[in-house]
Design brief:
mainly alpha, 7 helices, 149 residues, 2 domains, globular
């Protein structure tokens, strides 16, 4: 039954960021949390793939549920790193986790991940690629939040 509710939730998540969609996604938050927590509490094998966790973590993140988003993002990172440590989706998940760390004031954890993402982007895409520049910007934002100008 939880698998069915998970699939319904995943398919309800709207990706386009309009005010209406963000409001709808906000309604999904308690259902998302309940779904993955009940599986854990009941000792059921979590049958999520990284894309399902990704959608759930986005909803949690956009609603300020940083600890829940961090948990799911760390799971995504583990899943994607097993597939390949050097691909776009793995780097994106590492970046998401780093941004969540930064939002929570966990600047050291954020910087470690952001430096790694930036270095991998430079190596894979070059220093001028937009993803490399975005990863540099994210690192600068973390330094700025830390008061290191």
């Amino acid at each position: 039954m939880m698998q069915v509710s998970k699939l319904i939730l995943v398919n309800c998540i709207t990706k386009e960021r309009t005010a209406e969609n963000l409001s709808f996604n906000r309604i999904l938050v308690p259902h998302i949390k309940t779904n993955y927590q009940l599986q854990e509490e009941n000792g059921l094998k979590k049958v999520f793939d990284d894309n399902e966790y990704y959608l759930f973590s986005n909803v949690l993140q956009e609603n300020g549920m940083w600890q829940d988003a961090e948990y799911l993002q760390s799971q995504i990172g583990k899943m994607r790193t097993k597939k390949s440590a050097k691909n776009a989706s793995t780097l994106a998940s590492m970046n998401d986790l780093a941004l969540t760390y930064s939002q929570q004031g966990k600047y050291n954890e954020a910087k470690v991940l952001q430096l790694k993402v930036m270095d991998l982007h430079k190596m894979m895409l070059g220093p001028e690629h937009p993803y490399t520049l975005i990863s540099m910007n994210n690192l600068v934002v973390t330094y700025s939040r830390e008061g290191k100008y």
